[in-house]
């Protein structure tokens, strides 16, 4: 077995996603299992080079994880020819600039979503990457969650018959920061810093709908800022300039309609923080992050509307749990593995910067739809 080291510049690793999901649960987890076995006698060994703005935070992070390489000089890291990949999990507003520099330096790039604050920026990145001939990928982690993989299995197996509708419910209460600290960064609530639930979540809904049910062909959204004042990490009050809830209707190629609520101002009365109910002519399913339950047409009860009588049975108990039938790894790690294989072995990879641009396009059109009170067609993108 030969071992090939892939040096990966990781920017934004002191943040929530960069640290927990990408560094610890993905690349360090790969190292803990001995690297990525390519199955042909070669193992890829990811070597993170931590990049950021704060030396003390990077040093502490590197020491904590037994890593030796970190830098606050992005240009120097990009000039290092032994670094093959640039990864970005910075706050959204810092992304385009860093990715542009990484592509110009000839690095393969892998990035968190959204790839840019607007469609023009997202498409420009995709074009730069194409022209530079580098490989590129965008995080689309929800596709790799156990619940959604089971749902995809049902779609592929023809369980639903004609798919009629998709109903998504995402959200939880994000504390305002006054009497309990907020559990999300304050920039999420400031439009000028790349915040807002539409730019955050519509890119996810775009690829989930696209990969499972069909491309989004039209959007109609209503967005609002329910909580108008919050407190930041220092306890200082600030005005929320970005929306914290979005109520969207998405028309899909193939005729199904999806309706997804996204909110950081909702209290959870669900089994999981996101759930999708899919109703098909032959069966229905409710999928969350991990679980997935189904009800086949043959098992569908016949409720009769009668408010005078109490409900004597549990509708939830009439669904069956879909078995795992496989082992599910962390979704971020699963996608990293595919991206690294794409780099090492030319294996196909379609979750690229053009796919990322589709997510930004949907966010942009969703915001326009809400601002103007009208439905927007979503044109197919090409480079
Ligand atoms: N795939 C997912 O499920 C998912 C979930 C949450 C967030 N995200 C995305 O990941 C990215 C990071 O989100 P997060 O929640 O980890 O944010 P965070 O605030 O916790 O981390 C941001 C990181 O970027 C760095 N940074 C660099 N320039 C910055 C600037 N100008 N302002 C603020 N921070 C700056 C910070 O130091 C930190 O390391 C965002 O683009 C977000 O959209 C993805």
Automatic annotation (TrEMBL):
Q: What domain of life?
A: Bacteria
Which PANTHER family does the entry link to? NAD(P)-BINDING ROSSMANN-FOLD SUPERFAMILY PROTEIN-RELATED, OXIDOREDUCTASE
Q: Write out the GO MF terms.
A: nucleotide binding
Per its UniProt record, what Pfam families does this chain match? GFO_IDH_MocA (PF01408), GFO_IDH_MocA_C3 (PF22725)
Protein name as catalogued: Oxidoreductase
Location of the GFO/IDH/MocA-like oxidoreductase domain: 149-285
Task: Report domain Gfo/Idh/MocA-like oxidoreductase N-terminal positions.
Answer: 50-134
């Amino acid at each position: 077995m030969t071992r090939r080291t892939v040096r990966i510049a990781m920017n934004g690793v002191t943040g929530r996603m960069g640290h927990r999901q990408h560094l610890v649960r993905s690349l360090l987890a790969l190292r803990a299992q001995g690297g990525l076995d390519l199955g042909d006698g070669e193992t890829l060994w990811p070597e993170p080079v931590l990049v950021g703005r704060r030396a003390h935070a990077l040093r502490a992070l590197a020491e904590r994880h037994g890593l030796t390489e970190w830098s606050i000089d992005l240009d120097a890291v990009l000039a290092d020819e032994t670094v093959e990949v640039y990864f970005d999990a910075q706050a959204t507003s810092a992304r385009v600039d860093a990715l542009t520099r990484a592509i110009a330096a000839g690095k393969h790039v892998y990035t968190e979503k959204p790839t840019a604050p607007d469609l023009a920026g997202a498409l420009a990145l995709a074009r730069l990457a194409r022209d530079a001939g580098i490989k590129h990928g965008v995080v689309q982690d929800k596709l790799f969650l156990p619940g959604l993989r089971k749902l995809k299995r049902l779609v592929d197996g023809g369980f639903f018959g004609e798919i009629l509708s998709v109903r998504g419910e995402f959200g939880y209460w994000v504390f305002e920061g006054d009497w309990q600290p907020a559990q999300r960064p304050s920039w999420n609530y400031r439009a000028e810093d790349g915040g807002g639930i539409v730019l955050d979540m519509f890119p996810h809904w775009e690829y989930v709908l696209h990969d499972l049910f069909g491309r989004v062909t039209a959007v109609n959204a209503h967005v609002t800022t329910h909580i108008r004042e919050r407190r930041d990490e220092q306890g200082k009050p600030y005005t929320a300039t970005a929306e914290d809830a979005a109520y969207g209707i998405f028309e899909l190629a193939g005729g199904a309609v999806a309706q997804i609520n996204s909110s950081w101002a909702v209290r959870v009365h669900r089994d999981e923080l996101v759930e999708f109910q899919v109703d098909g002519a032959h069966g229905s399913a409710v999928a969350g992050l991990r679980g997935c339950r189904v009800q086949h047409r043959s098992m569908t009860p016949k409720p009769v509307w009668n408010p005078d009588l109490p409900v004597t049975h549990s509708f939830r108990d009439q669904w069956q749990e879909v078995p795992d039938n496989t082992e599910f790894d962390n979704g971020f790690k699963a996608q990293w593995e595919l991206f690294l294989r794409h780099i090492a072995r030319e294996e196909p990879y379609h979750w690229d910067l053009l796919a990322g641009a589709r997510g930004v396009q949907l966010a942009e059109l969703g915001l326009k739809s809400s601002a103007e009170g009208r439905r927007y067609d979503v044109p197919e993108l090409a480079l």
